[in-house]
Specification:
Helices cover 31% and strands 19% of the residues. The protein is elongated and about 70 Å long. The protein has two domains: 2-123, Orthogonal Bundle (Arc Repressor Mutant, subunit A); 141-435, no CATH class. The chain is α+β, with helices and mostly antiparallel strands.
Length: 438
């Protein structure tokens, strides 16, 4: 045995091998996301699916039982369904034999395993044998825009672990004549929206979410569509130039209003500005500081123990919610018997753009469209065409620098690739809040 600098015995030879094997057998995979009885089957299933797909020979649903060591076919099916429901595996017909369904790891599973396997590699002191795409992604996984460094330095906004700013920076969103949302803009109320959200801005930067674990390296599709909808609207406003940027460029040097599309699960800039932290985004609830800069009344709520809802055929999410900090009431969407959303909430948060002194002095804003689920984020167009609700919010917010509104969307249509809300309920919740800019 040799000694480490701290005089801790370091295993050698076969003892070291036994030590490492024992550590793996006793490992609490994925930070305890699964119960012990679930992990017995799910861990070998997920690892097998990951390795087999990487080698070009994906496992199928029938061979999954052997991969996870399940003797009972019903047990195997149960855990395959659970892995699919949590967005870790996806199934697809075999091109050569349509009777077989193959299992592939999702981007979310690849992301989790990249972190997990890198930690194991570091613990065992073994160099990586292959420089995978995920290892390359890890090099830029933590990226903090310069605009937020001063806030972080003050210690008032703790940095979220494992967040990626601008992962979709190379993805071009359309803001000009080819914007697919332009066809809907004829129904919008640009003058009312400008009076409500951008009374002084000439430039508006739109930042859609680009760090959701299900869309690694891409803008979240619902956040991207919401950005395109707002870009189409901005082109109708007087002297307003929209720019869509996933957040890689400096924000503090941008002289105008900032709009964040997507909540803290998909948009890391939203997470920082709302001071939301998660030790483990796949398990832990959102946490907020005791003495926040942004003293919100309506805060995003995550709960991995909540019932799950079906967003698409391959995408399931827990039923998130909104917490009323004043009354302690929890607002949750309604769900039908088919595990589909019946209603959802869109929280609109407006505050001064305190990241840029000139923008702050002029009265430019930071506006956040935080949908409890993506279906309500992309429903921002329902607000933009509702003159009655826009006038109501203009009247309520007159004289207020910082305010929030909680909008309820309903009549959700599931006939397309992603669900779409067709109705905006009346009488939104409304509240002002304070900013501590000391």
């Amino acid at each position: 045995m040799t000694r480490s600098p701290k005089d801790t015995p370091v295993p050698e030879g076969l003892t070291a091998v036994a030590h490492n094997v024992l550590s793996l057998l006793q490992r609490q995979w994925f930070d305890g996301r699964f119960k012990r009885e679930e992990a017995v089957y799910l861990v070998p299933l997920l690892l097998s699916a990951y390795v087999a797909a990487d080698e070009g020979n994906p496992i199928n649903k029938k061979t999954a039982s052997a991969a996870m060591g399940a003797d009972d076919i019903k047990t195997a099916r149960k855990y395959v369904v659970l892995a699919e429901k949590q967005g870790l595996l996806r199934s697809a017909p075999d091109e050569h034999d349509r009777r077989r369904e193959l299992l592939y790891p999702t981007d979310a599973l690849k992301q989790l395993l990249r972190l997990e396997l890198a930690q194991i590699r570091d613990n065992f002191g073994q160099p990586s044998e292959r420089d995978s795409d995920f290892d390359k992604a890890a090099e830029s996984q933590i990226f903090v825009p310069p605009a937020l460094t001063h806030m972080l330095a003050q210690g008032k906004i703790p940095l979220m672990g494992e967040v990626s700013f601008g992962a979709g920076g190379s993805e071009v969103r359309l803001v000009g004549p080819n914007n697919p949302a332009n066809s809907r803009a004829a129904n919008f109320e640009p003058e009312l929206v400008q009076e409500l959200l951008f009374p002084s801005a000439e430039n508006v930067k739109l930042i859609p979410g680009a760090h959701h674990l299900h869309y690694v390296g891409k803008i979240h599709p619902d956040d991207g569509e919401a950005a395109e909808i707002l870009a189409a609207l901005c082109t109708q406003m007087a002297a307003v130039e929209p720019i869509i940027d996933p957040g890689r460029s400096s924000l503090e040097t941008f002289d105008g209003s900032l709009v964040l599309l997507g909540g803290p699960t998909s948009n890391a800039v939203t997470a920082l500005l709302l001071e939301v932290t998660q030790k483990n985004p796949q398990r832990d609830a959102f946490a907020s500081p005791i003495d926040p800069v942004v003293k919100l009344r309506y805060r995003p709520l995550s709960d991995w123990k909540a019932p799950w809802v079906k967003i698409t055929d391959t995408d399931w999410e827990p039923v998130w919610g909104v917490e009323d900090a004043k009354t302690q009431e929890i607002l949750r969407p309604q769900v039908d018997t088919n595990d589909r959303l019946v209603t959802d909430f869109l929280v609109v948060t407006v505050m001064p753009n305190f990241l840029n002194p000139a923008a702050l002095a002029r009265g430019d804003r930071i506006v956040i469209f935080d949908g409890v689920h993506g279906v309500s984020t992309r429903a921002n167009g329902l607000l933009f065409q509702n003159a009655r609700m826009l006038k109501d919010l203009i009247a309520r917010s007159k004289g207020s620098r910082s305010w929030q509104a909680v909008l309820t969307v309903s009549d959700i249509d599931y006939s397309g690739k992603r669900p779409r809300a067709r109705k905006l309920e009346t009488a939104p919740l409304y509240s002002t809040f304070e900013l501590d800019l000391r």
